[in-house]
Amino acid sequence: MEILCLGLSHQTAPVELRERFAIPDGELGARALALSKCPGLSEAVIVSTCNRVELYVVAEDASHGMSALQQFVSAESAQGDLGASAFYRLPTLQSLRHLFRVVSGLESMVLGETEILGQVKKAYQAAQLGGATGRHLNKFFQRAFNVAKEVRTQTNITRGSVSVGSVAVDLAERIFGKLAHCRVMILGAGEMSELTAGALKARGVETIFVANRSYDRAAALATAMGGKAVHFDQWQNEFHEVDILIGSTAAPHPVLTAEKLSPVMRTRRDRPLFCIDLAVPRDIDPAVNAIDGVYLYDIDSLQAIADQSMKNRRQELGVCETLIERHVGEFHGWLSGGDRGAAIRAGQSRPAGGANALANPLDGSAKGARP
Amino acid sequence: MDRLLLIISTFCFLFGFAYTMHALGARVYRHSPLNFFAILTGFAFQSAFLYLRGQRLGRCPLSNLFEVLIFLSWSMVLLYLLTGPTYRLSLMGAFTSPLVFFLQIAALLLVPWLDLPSRAKLTHNTWLELHAALSIIAYGAFALACVAGVMYLAQERQLKSHNLHSIFYHLPPIRDLGVANRRLLLAGFALLSVGLGAGFAIGEIQSQWIKILWSSGVWLLYAGLLVAIFLHKVSGRRVAWLSACAFLVVLSTLWGLHFIADSPQP
To answer: Which domains does chain A have, with CATH numbers?
Structure first.
């Protein structure tokens, strides 16, 4: 029994091509059922996200199964042009490895992201509810979800944030715990401050003040964020109650200095203040970081943490791949009827160049690009 | 038999500490019930030891420095089990375990010098036992405040320097640590006040003047600390430093006090 995969992803196809093959969530079950009924195929799951479209099928014969898959995709393509070079066609062993890597976030645009796991789970559930899965794909996807869990818990591949906004939110949670009762003030209604405040709001922040030299702009942003606009010359009146300050004005000099902040901090007892300075030139005097209870991060320090997190994640790749290979070997052993030793040996004999250099047995060429 | 229970308990704390250090060292620390259960098991053996001692003595087992150290360790663990989960301070166990382990291992290694029959006449006196027990539990609270203070300083250092290590992601939010620190100091102070009151109710002020003087000194130390915290709004960082230093002062003087107080009175 073979498990095959045909698909394209952000690594092999531009968005213009990916969107042609994207399938709405509501249709995933029905399309998977239709695919499973193609000649030579018995089970199917279709994964469709903004970064990838992948079709997993069970076939008696690899060659016939892949032909059926290609015919199905050709029929689905409105333009008829399959964009063949953008597709990867994976035989059993590579399909197993590929799905395990996908759900673990190793093939994602942001290494180690976890959203993909939920998307694959939804796709699988849609196929299962639609009656398109059977014994093999049920076991395959369940194993994949277990692999993803194991990778997440036994490695640091998801550790740390890898974007400036998420680093800021992460730090806020390390300082305050739950953010629901935190008050945020935005100084200067820039795009970055809006994004960061939005991320904080998504984590539960309820009170947001917006102060901007243009009051209309402040009011517009405050309305959009469910906050309160403040006249720029009055922002210090509201400042005593603020827990998180986001600075992104175009002011040529710091608007918040240690001299201004020190007396305020003395009245706050042990209530920390988290200052996020996204402005260039900086809005907040670096000297405020020396005040007890004040934690100042500028755009460079946030970016440095994000970069370090990404570096740490890359260092975890080897550990993740070792773990995945063990599961690939075990599952392939089960699939091929118990010749586990051969399966493991097969699992270990990955082509040089890692997961991104898979041989395509169907056309004999090396598919250099993997999702 | 009772010392065997204590040895087992000490190994439980060593295990909890070693497990956490290994997990942190391997950079894959996850909140695991293993550390908590190691501490819980250690606590059960500690309790069994103190119960057997109490049965043998016919009173609360606080007759010599050995028993005082074990009772102090027990009260620290008790307070951790009560407050740790409340404040989501799961990693506090990793910081509490080594302190308890070193206290117990010191007590066990120094058994010939510490576990001596008290020269004072051992009689059952409710006020005396209440005084001793509450005072030691209060020191347990101060010890835990010291632990929370150390965790606060570790977290604060990383946040200030922007240099985030693996442990950063496992330490509780710094605001929670500050709150836990203040509340533990307050709880310890309340217990110590009641314990001291019970000490005065014993009525043997002249014969126990060294202990009373020392206890009053400790009370004044923490009273001053709390006045600074609640009236002068001292920053969380300073509270953390003060709570850590205050407990080290108490711990270092406890040793000398017992030798002086246990020596024949003039």
So the answer is: 2-154+336-367 (3.30.460.30), 164-306 (3.40.50.720)
